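Q: Structure for this?
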Amino acid sequence: MKNLSSKLNSTIMHMVLIFYTLICLFPVYLLVNNSFKSRRAIFKQPLSLPNEETFSLAGYLKMFSRVDFGVFFYNSISVTIITLFFVLLFGAMAAWALSEYKFKGNTMLGLYLAFGIMIPIKLGTVSILQLMNSLNLVNSLTGLIIIYIAQSLPLAIWILTEFMKQLSNELKEAARCDGVNEYQLFFYIVLPLLRPPMATVGVFTMVPVWNDLWWPLILAPSNGKQTVILGMQQYIGQYVTNWNAIFASLSLALIPVIIFYLIFSRQLIRSITSGAVK
Amino acid sequence: MKKKFPLHIIVFLFPACFIYSIFMIYPLIDTMRVSLYTQNLLGENMDDSSGVRAFIGLRNYYDLFFNDTWSWHFWNALKNNIYFFLLHISIQTPVGLLIAAFLSNKELKLKNTYRTLIFLPAMMSIVIVGYIFNLILSSLWGIPQTILGLVGLEDIVQPWLGLKGSALITVSLISIWQFVGIPMLLFYAALVSIPEEILDAAKVDGSSGYNTFWKIKFPLILPTIGLMCVLTYVGNFNAFDLIYAIKNIYAGPEFSTDLMGTFFYRTFFGYQHQLGNPTMGATVASTTFVIILVGVVFYLYAFQKRITRYQY
């Protein structure tokens, strides 16, 4: 009797979960599926899979033949990677100082840096644009990178500080006894230990940066400095009728994130469940 | 004599503090300062003033709240935004909780797969999401007709995104669809971290699964629900991309999907015949800042105090 009811329970759970998973995947399916079809088929049978007749790579070929889209990809990738590098480096350095050393104002500084987790940087747009104007960084990727670093640091520092508090004291003391100075201790001993939280920080930094529309829209609207997302947004607006190419470009912009996510999802979920983010 | 502050601490802290202070904290404060002035010259095309700005105190705020030129748009955007938030809370939270409760079941198979796939939309660019839903809901494809036709409900299909009465709800549902994974994951994390002993004790006492959930697990994850609410609140009042992707900055029809983010953008950069107004933009941003801050402070006081009670 008990067995039967638990079986029934798990069947219901599976049904609900499958149903919801399908809802989640349906739009993604539509997008990627239709990017491999001919224009006519996109309209006539949006739901069906491509077959011999309807299969077409026209959209992708068109996208690859456009030079600017390659540039957009290059922009997005370099902005994301450079941002990530500096967020991890500066974030780890600050987190190390906050978690390792006792100094006056430590707690206050921690709170000051944590403030940015909750308050969106977007609200400072008016002044940031002014600042970027005077620094001559409008329409440059450098401007974007700087803002993304500032935006990502608070959460990165928070996550890394929590992790560093758990590092064993013996290791650090042993190193210090061997005459290692504080810089060597951090760069050669602590930094290599930070692999697990860095993956989490990486996801939390890269995904919003890659997907962001606001800052590219405001700081780099033209001149081949667009990111993929902005370029796509402009492309959609201009070529409303070129469905193949639009679907292909949307799929292309989506794929790096999905690959990245699938590689790191286990790590991400593990670190969230173990309480790295609270 | 005062002890010298160790140099290496400064070296470690400096880069992060410098960038964060200059490009995040300073602009936030400076935005509030700018909101106390009349228009100034930010870029060549933004206005025709001579670049001289005059201090006018809180006049911009008065105009924003009470002057017809601005106030209708402001109150409209604020009202929409509150509605947007309430819809998120009342749909996203229960759905996320339900899925998390199912996934936290130990005997359930394939839970990693479900979890990964349900979280996937949260990783996607809002521009992509907005575009694809625009197409799904358009009459071009007729997908709602096809799907609802399966259960004989094709007559209820309407251009939901285009109607004044339903556009905001539709946009909210799209946003909820995208971000349900976040509460799911946080609730899941909280549920699986509840100590075994507590649950075993409940089982021994003969508590049913349903009772265990509501009487034991739910109160224990209440702090996480509070955290989720405040994260949603901040995210919602910061929303911009989705409306921009689906409706552009006009937030149509008739501004029925206008949120603080889109209103801010229009005020700052101008639209159609209205010129951009940086100081009024700063006023809108500062007002949003206060709204968000009030929510966060409320959360910290109301919830963080209770968390200590439930800590195990």
